[in-house]
Amino acid sequence: MAPTQLEIKTKALGRLVKEESLYQEELKQQDDHINFLKSNNGDEYEIKKQIQVLDDTKKVIKEVLKKIKESKDSLESFLETYTGDEDLNLSKQNIANANKLF
Questions:
Q1: Average pLDDT value for residue range 70-98
Q2: pTM higher than 0.85, yes or no?
Q3: Domain ranges in the chain?
């Protein structure tokens, strides 16, 4: 059976929230790596490149947050007019998780 619009919107939001948390972990690891390189007098070129990677990760997080907001708004709008009988607990939980990011 094909997934319903509710399932698609709910899973998309959940995936984006999870993706954002993984990028936050990557950001912390990258920052720790840069600090390690600096404290051990690492190669300036490598430090510079790692800082660029850190900046790229920050840009990706900003874009993912934008997509989360759009997905959350879409799901909330969908739920306002939803008349089906599917369980809405996961949808509401994903919206709550998304709201914690803003």
A1: 96
A2: yes
A3: 24-79
